[in-house]
């Protein structure tokens, strides 16, 4: 049994109780993914599984046998930041930076959700197809990722700029 993490095959832990978050941080030393609340409330542990965002603190590693996990370390190309990572720098989308990896992973998947037409609580037209990421859509869709420092304006600006074709 194996999981692909950032392009590398990794054995599934023998202990079925190991969370995906603990596998990433403790076993693989991929410490970009943060342990915030460890209860699924803050979003600091957000990673991508086959392109969809999940809270790794609530996931058991064995559940993801045969799946592809992408962490913040796996988003950019070799030697280059992902465009959203660069936009976070340019827009001061972080202060302490603790939530930043989860925010970025969540935003990457969120844009893909909107392009597929997955509605949010504030989506007006449920049959519109691809959804435009208005200010309200962005805030609603990112509401599961908390920033205790108050960098939300920079975060939203970075996302809107990076994915301008999807935003108003």
TrEMBL record:
Keyword Iron belongs to the record: yes
InterPro entries in alphabetical order: 2Fe-2S-bd, 2Fe-2S-bd_dom_sf, 2Fe-2S_ferredoxin-like_sf, 2Fe-2S_ferredoxin-type, 2Fe2S_fd_BS, Aldehyde_Oxdr_Iron-Sulfur, Beta-grasp_dom_sf
A Pfam family recorded for this sequence: Fer2
Keyword terms: 2Fe-2S, Iron, Iron-sulfur, Metal-binding, Oxidoreductase
Database matches in PROSITE patterns: 2FE2S_FER_1, 2FE2S_FER_2
Stretches assigned to the 2Fe-2S ferredoxin-type domain: 1-75
Source organism superkingdom: Bacteria
A molecular function GO annotation: 2 iron, 2 sulfur cluster binding
Identification of the protein by name: 2Fe-2S iron-sulfur cluster binding domain-containing protein
Upper taxonomic lineage: Bacteria, Pseudomonadati, Pseudomonadota, Alphaproteobacteria, Sphingomonadales
């Amino acid at each position: 049994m194996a999981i692909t993490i950032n392009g590398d095959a990794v054995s599934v832990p023998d202990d079925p109780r190991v969370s995906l978050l603990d596998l990433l941080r403790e076993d693989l030393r991929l410490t970009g993914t943060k342990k915030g609340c460890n209860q699924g409330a803050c979003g600091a542990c957000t990673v991508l599984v086959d392109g969809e965002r999940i809270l790794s603190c609530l996931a058991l590693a064995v559940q993801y046998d045969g799946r592809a996990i992408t962490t913040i370390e796996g988003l950019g190309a070799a030697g280059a930041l992902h465009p959203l990572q660069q936009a976070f720098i340019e827009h001061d989308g972080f202060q302490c930076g603790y939530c930043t990896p989860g925010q970025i992973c969540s935003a990457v998947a969120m844009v893909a959700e909107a392009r597929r037409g997955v509605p949010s609580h504030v989506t007006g037209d449920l049959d519109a197809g691809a959804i435009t990421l208005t200010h309200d859509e962005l805030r609603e869709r990112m509401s599961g990722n908390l920033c205790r420092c108050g960098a939300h304006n920079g975060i939203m600006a970075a996302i809107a700029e990076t994915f301008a074709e999807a935003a108003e």
